[in-house]
Structure prediction request, 402 residues.
Amino acid sequence: MKPAIEIRNLGKQYKLATAEPYLALREMITGSVKKIWQGHKKSTEQFWALQDINLDILPGERLGIIGRNGAGKSTLLKIISRITPPTTGHATIRGRVGSLLEVGTGFHPELTGWENIYLNGSILGLKRAEITRQLDAIIDFSGVEKFINTPLKHYSSGMQLRLAFSVAAHLEPEILLIDEVLAVGDMEFQKKCLGKMEEVSKKDGRTILFVSHHLNSIMKLCTKAIWIDQGKLQFTGPVNETIGQYTRSVQSGSSDSVYTRDGATDDSFFLSTEILNPRIYIGEDLAVRVLFTEKYRKRRLVININIVDEFDQLVSHIINEDDGFSTENLQRNSLSVTLKSLNLVPGKYFLSFWAGLDMLHTLDKIEKAVAFEISDQHTFTKRIAPFPGTAKTIIQSVWQGG
Prediction:
């Protein structure tokens, strides 16, 4: 069986040119222009986004692609989808490719949702009759039927994602490329998308390449994974082994225990979050501090803190109202939370924060804002290991203002 995608010695190089200096009128008048140009040498730096990639992807294979931001994952998909050419090597593609690399790709904002379905299908090389045959299924899956005759420029990013994914999944490309765009959708739609990708791969034998930082989604969908770092292929193998190699590499780096929001606006709730003791032993307390926008200080709010492990699996969550703590009488725009007796298996964990006027109306959220580590020096302390599908660990917490 020939591979659906055959990659040999693939590399992509970009040139980063240094910008020329800005000359003020003052400098030109004083005659310093010559001096500036003599002291400035225009340089061009070469940057390899990908280097020496060799890979075979078989028909029907579900391949996860993981790595840090800037590792070269999206560049690889753009080369496979023929958006950008490689600098060295080649990628042989056997089959029609459908891509979902960013929200709105292949769509026109002035056309309606209905018209964009036909436009995107035509780009994939399908005849009008083929698109019409799938039209009802596409619209139904997307959930935007009420807006299907509305120009796309009036769609939210989530609605555009729903329609784009539905088109890509239903127009029957042999190879489906999915980038991190699923992070835009809500949890229900993400689950629906993962189910659809698994269905078309198993039932129709389509090949799927899935880039995501959500390792739990990679584990659920993919049978194989690759880890790319600094443009080079670091590991290829079964999904669990690849994720294990990647997470061990991430753990060896430093953890950020302080999060400060850049470009905060009046609509932002969270300004900063901090873990005061980011390295603890099993059974010890964890101290967390949150600073939020002043205008919310006298409001009744719901604040949720999630504990997430290194595989993006939810370990536990705490909510201020469940602990009888109200935000209405805070004297300052900050609060402290103590997570009591964390009996979790040793390893690295993250805290995600959510705030709303109630559980249905989101004000603000930040995913995996800060990190902490638990070590097992206290070997006689009972350890609790949460597993997917089981009840989450119950953690007691103490909230207070300031």
User: Anything to note?
Assistant: Residues 378-391 have pLDDT under 50 and may be disordered. The longest helix spans residues 187-204. The chain is about 25% helix and 35% strand.
